Give the backbone structure.
Amino acid sequence: MPAGSHVHIISAGEKIHCAFPALLRTLPGISRVYVIVESEVYTSAHDKTIEAQRLAVRNAVDAVKGICGTLEIPSARETVFAPVYPSVRKVLAKIRRENPKALFTFDLSGGNKDLCMALFALAPWIGGSVWNAFDGSVPQEVPVPDRDIRAMLANVNYQTILAVLLRNRPVPQASPDPPFIPRQYLFQQVWPYYIRQRVRRPEPGMPLLQYKRGRKPANDLSQATFSSFMVKLRDTGLVQEAQDTKNRKEKAYRISREGETAFLFFADPAVNSIIRQMLDGP
């Protein structure tokens, strides 16, 4: 999507078709709309009250689609499944990859608590502003915490480290938390894929080192540089640090939930095969 585009994300609820026109007046320039709907909305319920509520949500989603059609704004419905948070995270990561240069806004006027809380928690990761306009009232912006990880992950080596940590998660996942990986093993896994951001000039008279896998000497990853990467990842909360259980003198690391979110939103599959594998995986 071109620069200057504006993606508007709506949590599906019974009154979103009432709030949507008010948001369009407040936020002119919306160029694409996504409505996030929980999967159960499109299943039948034996309870008549629940079925009536789900029908109302479906009708509201159709009404938003109709408004978008009248205004020639492309729209799409995205379905999320339980557990809601990781499903919403995956959907938002896909939306961001489809619209990498867009401005993002969220309308949380509708939807149940779990859906709205997941969208609210994830909005800062893509720099999105959050709004509500209950019952078509004047829209109000909801303050969200500031989080800018995009600039940090522009250094592709951070992406590689997170991908390696994700790759070492056991399958099937017996625990929601990935295992801690010893520092030296992690270093060895990252080393072949390291890309130096600034070219290192060889010192006069010093022999050039030869590396396998077609690497250039300028790309050699030092222990000091790797340590600086891990400190930055730890301090920003993207990885967790602990003592290695088998070697108390060595650190061990695992990716945090925030690290998984950052990787999904900001990693580039074109960088290397590990990143592509982890982004394309389930």
In short: The mean pLDDT is 88. The chain has two domains: 6-142, 152-280. The first strand starts at residue 6 and ends at 11. Residues 48-70 form the longest helix (23 residues).
